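yo

u said u wanted the structure for the complex thing, so here. seqs first:
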Amino acid sequence: MVSIAKVIVDVPTMQTNKPYDYLILAEFDEQIMPGMRVEVPFGQGARKVQGFVVEITQASNFKGELKAIANLMDLTAVLDEELLLLGREMARWTFSFQITCYQTMLPAMLRAKYEKKIKVIDEIPENLFFELFKGRNELTWDEATERGLMPQLLKLKKKELVELSYSVKNQAKTKKRRMIQSDLSFEQLEEEIIGLGKRAPKQSVLLRQLQSLNNESISTTDMNKKYGVSAAILREAENKKWLSFFEEEMYRDPFKHKEFKKTEPFVLNDTQEKALQPIMKAVKQHEKEVFLLKGVTGSGKTEIYLQTIAETLKNGQSALMLVPEIALTPQMVHSFKGRFGGAVAVLHSGLSIGEKYDEWRKIERQEAKVVVGARSSIFAPVKNIGVIIIDEEHEGTYKQDENPRYHAKDVAIWRADYHSCPVILGSATPSLESRARAYKKVYTLLELPERVNKKDLPVVEVIDMREEVKTGNRSNFSIVLQEKIRDRIAKKEQIVLLLNRRGYSSFVMCRDCGFVLPCPNCDISLTLHMDTKTMKCHYCGHEEAIPRICPSCNGHKIRYYGTGTQKIEEELHDIIPEARVIRMDVDTTRKKGAHEKLLSAFGNKEADILLGTQMIAKGLDFPNITLAGVLNADTGLGLPDFRASERTFQLLTQVSGRAGRAELKGEVIVQTFNPEHYSIQLAQKHDYDAFYQKEMLLRHRGNYPPFFFTILITTSHTEELQASKKMQEIVESIRPNLRPETILLGPTPKAVARVNNRYYYQTIIKYKHEPTLFKQLQELLSQSQKEMAKGLQIAIDSEPMHFI
DNA sequence: AGCACGCCGACT
DNA sequence: GTCGGCGTGCTC
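structre next:
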């Protein structure tokens, strides 16, 4: 009986968003199982694609002739039953392809890579052979296109002298090392040592080491580095049959050179104990309860996480914890590795793809039982999950802004449901959505209202920058802030300065005619980058020289406006020359490990001031920081985004938490042009509850989440009319099927209507209850296939983070 | 995505 | 008449 595999193929179109049937050849019959990656022929020609086996059955409904699976790409399944099911369901609620979901779940190394080659299969004229193939037998597709050889090659193909070959490249390479094992017993080795001449000291060292191995093995590198035994000696020893070599798979350990000091659980205070109890109960009883742990900065949330995880490990279960990428600091890693040692796998963007793959394998083999990582770690192949923790749950980075547009929180709750275990959402400033759910008792609210060190939250002083301007201070630093910075430097204490760059960029403008340099491809102005001395477009990546003369009026009065971290650093240097500044932003942290290096330099007090963007607001904990400054608190407030106030409040609260973590008292300076804005005033008072009340009122008035669910539909096309027409059509087709209280905003052009020469139109749907809406939209997507093949793009984003 | 099929214009 | 343009539809 021939078995049949149902395969999701790597061809992202609606028609292929269902399994295709393939025959399983006898040679694979034993090993094949659902969740494995396979290489399958697809379409006419010789094209081969990667696919995922989702099921193995005995019969097929397909009317045509089945093709056979060409190759297995894995020895064991890379997706288990749970993840296969999750991918299928996620594709539905994120309006994306199943294949895209599966690819997202896996480390980059297991994602499909294709190799397209042109092979010589018959005699071709010698001159052509050398001209085209340079005497080789095959040519990569890329090279052929680059050298413009395709027309000639296609002619040869017609004559069947060459053929196209496709293959799926399996990049999943493990790192191996060469190991030595002794082939002689202790006594035999002893004899060899006695028999050695005095002039063979290295061999004697080797033999002594082999004796001390005690049936263990040692790597050739260790033997060389630690004992100075060279490869030549080892080779000779192999010839003498003293030892033999074998290959051992190893992990690329990103923390190879680090020691983690073992930490012990702290004794919890009463409030922590009170918060921990219900969680522990849920962990022990395997209840799928969602907790919202609301604790002020420094209230010891991490210790609660650690003790919860310890409990799940005790029960033989594993734990999954998400943190925002930028909070994945060495400090964070330390506290987890310190408590749980080798049982911890850490996944973050700073790892190489090889390192990520190895961490993934450690989890897959259940060697790591605790996973700490950013958004995509929610798909870690952990079995038997005992708890899922999402720290800083309000963070927008948990929502992926490309397909599949999933929210890690939704996936967490899905997986917790599957495993029947609790979820902990932790934050000092919960998202309104989560807080509201806790209010409605959908989540269980747990609160940690005080800091562990019993210190008061730092005093926040709000500086009205309008007054500064009036008194003639045109700089970005208020007089008060300048004084405080000098004071801290004198006291050898440290400072963090945050530049809130959201919605802000530096641009150049002509003072005479007001001309602002636009991007040729997008409807947006170019941003000045001092490091590369160019103008860049943040949307399409276009780059050009900084103009000296105004292209519009030929004037010479081109000036820089706006504020970047680079400019602030220079300004700071002018005002306070003695300040030693470390700047942290995308430009200085791009390189691998740069982030960590800068932070440890700051930790070693090599600088007085840490100046940066959002990335310095999260999680860092330096006892010597006593002053935190926000240079421009309100740049986000002007944005047409209903979450602007919430983000500002969260950011300010977070920054306040950076100051005065230890013995020294902290102080916070917030500079703003909107000192009376409620998000700034309430952040100053550390009053989350009042902010929640106020903001809920406004959300209610504006019919925004959490009172309404939202879906954002975007169409785009290189021709504006096509995009607008389709959007119009979509709105007309769904409106009649919606309830009267459902609100449609659109169609409207997007705020940046043209990006990369494509035109964007959007519609927002706000609804309370639309049981058929998802189905309708699914339908809409599948009906639009033809247009989508002709350059139209439709994106559907449920609960988007940004509406512009 | 990539390939074949099929239907129209310009060429040996 | 044939070569080759790309619009259309299918891939187990």
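The first strand of chain A starts at residue 4 and ends at 9. Chain A has six domains: 4-112, 114-169, 184-241, 270-448, 459-502+564-698, 709-798.
cya
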